[in-house]
Structures are given as C-alpha cells and as structure tokens.
Design a protein that fits this description.
The complex is a heterodimer of chains A (114) and B (112). Chain A is mostly beta strands and 114 residues long. In chain A, 0% of the residues lie in helices and 56% in strands. Classes of the chains: A mainly beta (114), B mainly beta (112).
Chain lengths: 114, 112
C-alpha cells in the first residue's frame, strides 16, 4: 500500500513566522505535490516536483517555496506566514511508470496562522 | 482551459436510497478521470481511475462510469458509512507531469 505521511496533523503559528511542512512517501514515486484546500475553492496546486531538486510552480505559488533534497521527501515552506495562509495543506505523490499518474494523498495538515 | 464541474454540491440520502453524482469535464485529451472520497479533516482517498468512454468500475456500493463529457458515480443502497465528500479530477493528455484538475466535490450525507 502507498503511504504518504505528513509531519503534523495540526499546526498553529503566528504571523511572520517561517513554517515548514514535511511530507514523506514510501513508494519510490517520482512526482510529489503540495495542495491547499479551502471551503468553496476546492484543491489548488501550490507546487510540484518531478525529481530530486526539481520543482515547478502550480496555480498559487505566491508566498510559498519548496524543497526536495531526497526522492521520498518534499517540504513546503511558508517564508513569512500570513493569516490568509490558514488552510488545510495536502501532500500527494504519484509515479509516471503506469498508464496514468494516480495521486495518493497524505492525511493533511490543518494550519492556523494567528 | 481544463474544467471540472461536480453536481450536486450536496446530497442527503436515506439509507438504502440509491443516487448518482455527476462530474462534467472539458479537458485537452483526457488521460484519466479520477474519483476520490474525502472524510472530514482527512486527505482524499483514491477510489477509481477511468481511462476511456464506456468504461465502468465498481467497488462495493460504488460504481463509476465515463462518457466523453461526463462521469457518474452511482451509490447503490448507501449506508451511513458512505457519508463523505466525493471528489472528481481529470488528468490531461497534454500534461507531462500528471497534474490533476479537481472539481469542488459533492458532499454526501446518508442518514439511518
């Protein structure tokens, strides 16, 4: 079974803090993704990575950066957290070795920025 | 631009009352259509992938079908444990990275 884990289920931070969200997958997947999910807006792609040290912007990258130093780990960084970054953050991974790239999700991190 | 629209936004069912959820899509060459189930406060759980029009897949009380313009998720004789938000997503054939375009979801509540 594919397993995607995220470092925290709940996180509370203050405005201006630097925040790190960690994601680890154990299936040797090439692709990893970070989404945020907000009521009424659905899942929106922030960044994704298709290989170690490679990254691409998604639909809403502003205010975020990412790091992928090892294949199994993908980190999302909020350089200076703001209240409008309060959200549910979801990590996913996939492999392009099959006919389609099914994405498997982690349990999510509920981030509150005060 | 790829677009995914799910309807209805919310659905309230009595236990045993079968119904269908709709996912309409426009995409540049469909590579795959995905259905996920999401429980409150949790990450989406993969259910099905459909690749081409006419394809059907089943899992317990759920059956997904696909046409050239839409997909349906049929819930047969639902139970309260089928209560969840069901998400539909499409993957375009023109996308090299396997990105997904998600719909907003249908929230299903099944009452005993």
């Amino acid at each position: 079974d594919v397993k995607v884990t995220q470092s925290s289920r709940y996180l509370v931070k203050r405005t201006g803090e630097k925040v790190f969200l960690e994601c680890v997958q154990d299936m040797d997947h090439e692709n990893m993704f970070w989404y945020r999910q907000d009521p009424g807006l659905g899942l929106r792609l922030i960044y994704f990575s298709y290989d170690v040290k490679m990254k691409e912007k998604g639909d809403i990258p502003e205010g975020y950066s990412v790091s992928r130093e090892k294949k199994e780990r993908f980190s999302l960084i909020l350089e200076s957290a703001s209240t409008n970054q309060t959200s549910m953050y979801l990590c996913a991974s996939s492999s392009h070795r099959g006919p389609t790239d099914t994405q498997y999700f982690g349990p999510g991190t509920r981030l509150t920025v005060l | 631009e790829d677009q995914v629209t799910q309807s209805p936004e919310a659905l309230r069912l009595q236990e045993g009352e079968s119904s269908s959820l709709n996912c309409s899509y426009t995409v540049s060459g469909l590579r795959g259509l995905f259905w996920y189930r999401q429980d409150p406060g949790k990450g989406p759980e993969f259910l099905f992938t459909l690749y081409s029009a006419g394809e059907e897949k089943e899992k317990e009380r759920l059956k997904a079908t696909l046409t050239k313009k839409e997909s349906f998720l049929h819930i047969t004789a639902p139970k309260p444990e089928d209560s969840a938000t069901y998400l539909c997503a499409v993957q375009a054939g023109t996308d090299s990275w396997g990105k997904l375009q998600f719909g907003a979801g249908t929230q299903v509540v099944v009452t005993p």
